[in-house]
Amino acid sequence: MFSTKSKTERTATQAWEYLTAAMAAATDTAKDTTDKAAKLAGKASDQSHKLAGRSQQLAGKAGGKADVAWARANAAAAALAGQKPSRPWGLIVGVGLLGVAVGWAVATSARAALEQQAEAEERELAETAVVVTPTYDN
């Protein structure tokens, strides 16, 4: 009935069992946590690549907007200084050259159309022409 172990030995044995059970549970939890952390790290890596691509797109847009803002700020400063804005000569020359090219194309096609119309009228006249020969009475 009575145990040969002392109360101290029983307490030490019970503490050892609790400690080994806690260590086993901690090991399992650590393994699960490590697996979950690895999965989350993979997802975070994928998301970071997506976000990096998106941030590059946004940076490009921001750079374009910054250029526009810089040009507008310079124009505003020039206006406040009383300077008139410069004429966009490149745009003016480009539009002028485009107009010349379009005008030349229209004139060439109109000339060709008029020539075809004249040829068609000549053919029609040739087909419907009546040859009248004078008769001489002797």
Key features of this structure:
single chain, 138 residues, mainly alpha, 2 domains, 2 helices
Q: What is the compact description of this entry?
A:
This protein has two helices and no strands. It has 138 residues and is mainly α.
Rounded Rg: 48 Å
Terminal-residue CA separation: 175 Å
Tell me what portion of residues adopts beta-strand conformation.
under 5%
Helix % is over 70%
Oligomer: single chain
Number of helices: 2
The total count of strands amounts to 0
Structural category is mainly alpha
Number of domains: 2
Pattern of helices and strands:
HH
The averaged pLDDT comes out at 83
Q: Unreliable runs, pLDDT <50, ≥5 residues? A: none
Q: Tell the overall outline.
A: elongated
- Sheet of most strands: none
Task: Give the topology, please.
Blueprint: H1 7-80, H2 89-128
Description:
The protein has 138 residues and is an all-alpha fold. It folds into 2 domains: 1-85; 87-130. It is 83% helix and 0% strand. The chain contains 2 helices and no strands. The protein has helices at residues 7-80, 89-128. The relative contact order is 0.03. The mean pLDDT is 83.
